């Protein structure tokens, strides 16, 4: 069936709630309104208010309650309306969700999914356009997953819900309704921690995740080079082996992300490439990122957001080094 990302995520939520009665959803406006982007639309009518729970506007409370649910046998899916609102939940996620397995020496796990839209590209305000995935990826005990297409969203979300540990599931806002593709009606899972080679190439490796993938593909189609494209899918744990295998063949790498440059995941990826493939490198790792500024108001977003030209120029700098 042809679906956009909103429909694919809704389908994954519905199927997992039908399959497993311990799966519950909680968050701001997830019930009556069906979520700010309508990702949970129809689930309240289907499963009732005991399993689709509208909460107060209290992100720390949402995450804390979800952790308690997970400790007591449920599989909560907690929604933050936007990534910029989730920082209030960081204390709960860092000090409790991420550490409970280690703290109890494996007696208690936290099968929790923390869902949230992230990223710019839709002319929203700054707290609605954050891309701070590196904050979550640095926390031991949390998995961080980012889909790039409707098919990827269904498979990765299903796997995240079934995972025994906490997963931060970041949904690229710009991609919610950008495209439709064929998505299986039935059960569909993709493995966490495994990158996807979107296309093979010999001259240069370009990698990204989430909303950057369509931009990367458009840029790659305009350059005269054999480009290998990698979608990381899971930022933590990162599938660096797939990246290194590619870079050892191509000798060149470009990392694209919409988060600010300083301490962004591009820096970590570059470091791992140097550690594992420096003798194969023909040029320094190129990073195409947002600048180190607060996300501008809508009129300035086009000057801030990653575009095809920036990616093409990054590839050209690497190829011409």
Which structural traits does this protein have?
321 residues; alpha/beta; Rossmann fold; 2 domains; 7-stranded mixed β-sheet; 5-stranded mixed β-sheet; 12 helices; 35% helix; globular
How does this structure look, described?
It is a single chain. This protein starts with a strand and ends with a helix. The protein is built from twelve helices and 14 strands. The chain has helices at residues 5-19, 43-47, 59-71, 90-97, 100-103, 133-137, 150-162, 212-220, 240-250, 265-277, 301-304, 308-319; strands at 2-3, 23-27, 52-54, 75-79, 113-118, 143-145, 167-172, 181-182, 196-199, 204-208, 227-231, 234-236, 253-260, 286-290. The strands form three sheets. The protein has a seven-stranded mixed sheet with strand order 3-2-4-5-7-6-12, with helices on both faces. Strands 9-11-10-13-14 form a five-stranded mixed sheet, with helices on both faces. It folds into two domains: 2-182, Rossmann fold (3-Layer(aba) Sandwich), CATH 3.40.50; 196-319, Rossmann fold, CATH 3.40.50.920.
């Amino acid at each position: 069936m042809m679906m956009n990302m909103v429909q694919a995520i809704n389908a994954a939520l519905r199927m997992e709630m039908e399959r497993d009665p311990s799966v519950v959803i909680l968050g701001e406006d997830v019930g009556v309104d069906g979520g700010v982007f309508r990702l949970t639309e129809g689930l309240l009518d289907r499963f009732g208010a005991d399993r689709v729970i509208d909460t107060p506007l209290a992100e720390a409370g949402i995450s804390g309650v979800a952790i308690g649910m997970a400790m007591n046998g449920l599989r909560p899916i907690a929604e933050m309306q936007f990534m910029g609102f989730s920082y209030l939940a960081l204390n709960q996620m860092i000090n409790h969700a991420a550490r409970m397995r280690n703290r109890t020496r494996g007696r208690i796990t936290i099968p929790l999914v923390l869902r949230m839209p992230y990223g710019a590209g839709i002319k929203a305000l700054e707290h609605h356009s954050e891309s701070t995935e590196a904050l979550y990826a640095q926390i031991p005990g949390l998995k961080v997953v980012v889909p790039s297409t409707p098919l990827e969203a269904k498979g990765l979300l299903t796997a995240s819900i079934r995972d025994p540990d906490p997963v931060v599931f970041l949904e690229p806002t710009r991609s919610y309704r950008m495209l439709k593709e064929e998505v299986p009606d039935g059960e569909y899972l993709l493995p966490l921690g495994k990158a996807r080679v979107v296309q093979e190439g010999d001259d240069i490796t370009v990698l990204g995740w989430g909303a950057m993938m369509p931009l990367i593909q458009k840029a790659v189609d305009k350059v005269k080079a054999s480009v290998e494209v990698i979608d990381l899918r899971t930022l933590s744990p990162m599938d660096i082996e797939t990246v290194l295998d590619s870079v050892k063949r191509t000798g060149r790498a470009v990392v694209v992300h919409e988060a600010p440059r300083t301490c962004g995941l591009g820096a970590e990826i570059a470091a791992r490439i140097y550690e594992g493939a420096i003798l194969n490198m023909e040029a320094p790792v190129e990073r195409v990122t947002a600048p180190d500024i607060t996300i501008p108001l809508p009129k300035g977003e086009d000057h801030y957001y990653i575009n095809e030209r920036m990616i093409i120029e990054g590839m050209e700098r690497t190829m011409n080094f």
